[in-house]
UniProtKB/TrEMBL annotation:
<dbReference type="InterPro" id="IPR019874">
    <property type="entry name" value="RF_methyltr_PrmC"/>
</dbReference>
<dbReference type="GO" id="GO:0005739">
    <property type="term" value="C:mitochondrion"/>
</dbReference>
<protein>
    <recommendedName>
        <fullName>peptide chain release factor N(5)-glutamine methyltransferase</fullName>
        <ecNumber>2.1.1.297</ecNumber>
    </recommendedName>
</protein>
<keyword id="KW-0808">Transferase</keyword>
<dbReference type="GO" id="GO:0102559">
    <property type="term" value="F:peptide chain release factor N(5)-glutamine methyltransferase activity"/>
</dbReference>
<dbReference type="InterPro" id="IPR007848">
    <property type="entry name" value="Small_mtfrase_dom"/>
</dbReference>
<feature type="domain" description="Methyltransferase small">
    <location>
        <begin position="141"/>
        <end position="235"/>
    </location>
</feature>
<keyword id="KW-0949">S-adenosyl-L-methionine</keyword>
<dbReference type="InterPro" id="IPR004556">
    <property type="entry name" value="HemK-like"/>
</dbReference>
<dbReference type="InterPro" id="IPR002052">
    <property type="entry name" value="DNA_methylase_N6_adenine_CS"/>
</dbReference>
<dbReference type="InterPro" id="IPR050320">
    <property type="entry name" value="N5-glutamine_MTase"/>
</dbReference>
<keyword id="KW-0489">Methyltransferase</keyword>
<dbReference type="GO" id="GO:0003676">
    <property type="term" value="F:nucleic acid binding"/>
</dbReference>
<dbReference type="Pfam" id="PF17827">
    <property type="entry name" value="PrmC_N"/>
</dbReference>
<dbReference type="GO" id="GO:0032259">
    <property type="term" value="P:methylation"/>
</dbReference>
<dbReference type="Pfam" id="PF05175">
    <property type="entry name" value="MTS"/>
</dbReference>
<dbReference type="InterPro" id="IPR040758">
    <property type="entry name" value="PrmC_N"/>
</dbReference>
């Protein structure tokens, strides 16, 4: 019995040592693997550094939006507050790298993730359809402050793009009905898709129409309580100075306002004179140099349109950006 114990002890110790060594080896391997699995924090830091090195604008916002998209996180703040230490899978890392390479090519983040928040709408984005800007959200606020959302109203949007303006108004004015125009077939299709996604199709009609000085034949006799437009207003000579995100990827037809930036604006004024109801209102988003030019044009060049310049309003950058005009 003693011999059995005496002989067994070394064997047991040897086996125990082997098990312990194997356990330590497995533990170390597991710890090593865990340490090398990229987290949201490490990936974000890596791409911020890369974007900054490549002079990509808004480096932090760019990677945060991409991470939120890949993680399927609705609130951007959650990327930083709740997911900093979240480990990323190989598939997620590959997708992040793919999207970040697009950003390195100066593709707008809205086109990269194929959607964007506009007020309380999530809109699908497709290049080269014009991307709605934050300033346009301010235009919507101005309009909603002026209208009675519970009354019936017919309005026309000229140059609907993604549908941001029409859909925002329809969502908050359920008694309204809208007609939206755009010269781009893709823009018209995108507006309809976004309308379907938000259940706003019933009160919306969409026409593909290149604006000159008249509306489509089907609308020749129509009158509207309101017309709204964020038209092309960038003077042609300034297009080449725009950021690559804009001049390379967006539809320049949605930006080019002609020599003085007022070519399309004047066509819209002509339509407003013909198709606004008495006391109807035209809202425009324009270049900050345009409000006094528009006021002078209405008073001196085309008084027969019966349009009165009411006011201009500043945007968040303190620039005169929005114009209110009434049919008298």
């Amino acid at each position: 019995m003693k011999m059995f114990i005496t002989r067994s002890i070394p064997r047991l110790l040897k086996n125990s040592a082997s098990v312990n060594a194997l356990s330590r080896q497995n533990f170390c391997a597991e710890a090593l693997n865990t340490a090398t699995v990229p987290t949201v924090r490490t990936v974000k830091d890596k791409w911020i550094s890369r974007f900054q090195t490549e002079n990509i604008p808004e480096a932090d916002a760019s990677i945060t939006n991409i991470l939120a998209h890949v993680l399927k996180v609705q609130c951007l703040s959650d990327v930083n507050e709740r997911h900093q230490e979240t480990k990323l899978s190989e598939d997620q890392l590959a997708k992040i790298d793919e999207l970040c390479e697009c950003r390195l090519a100066r593709m707008p983040i809205q086109y990269i993730i194929h959607e964007w928040e506009f007020r309380d709408l999530t809109l699908k984005m497709v290049p080269p359809v014009f991307i709605p800007r934050p300033e346009t959200e301010e235009l919507i606020e101005l309009i909603l402050q002026q209208i009675d959302a519970q009354k019936e109203m017919k309005f026309l949007e000229i140059g609907c793009g993604t549908g941001a303006i029409s859909l925002s108004i329809l969502k908050h004015a359920p008694q309204a009905s809208a007609v939206a125009l755009d010269q781009s077939t893709l823009a018209c299709e995108l507006t309809m898709e976004n309308a379907k996604n938000h259940g706003l199709v019933d009160n919306l009609r969409i026409f593909r129409h290149k604006l000159v000085d008249k509306l489509p034949t089907e609308l020749e006799s129509h009158k509207f309580d309101m017309i709204v437009s964020n038209p092309p207003y960038v003077p042609s000579r300034q297009l080449l100075a725009l950021e690559p995100e804009i001049k390379v990827y967006e539809d320049l037809r949605a930006l080019d306002g002609g020599p003085d930036g007022l070519t399309v604006v004047k066509a819209i004024l002509d339509i407003a004179g013909k198709h606004l109801e008495p006391s109807g209102v035209l809202w425009l988003e324009v270049d900050s140099s345009h409000p006094p030019l528009i006021e002078k044009y209405l008073e001196e060049a085309v008084p027969e349109l019966g349009l009165k310049f009411m006011s201009s309003y500043k945007d968040m950058f303190r620039k005169e950006r929005f114009v209110e005009i009434m049919k008298v």
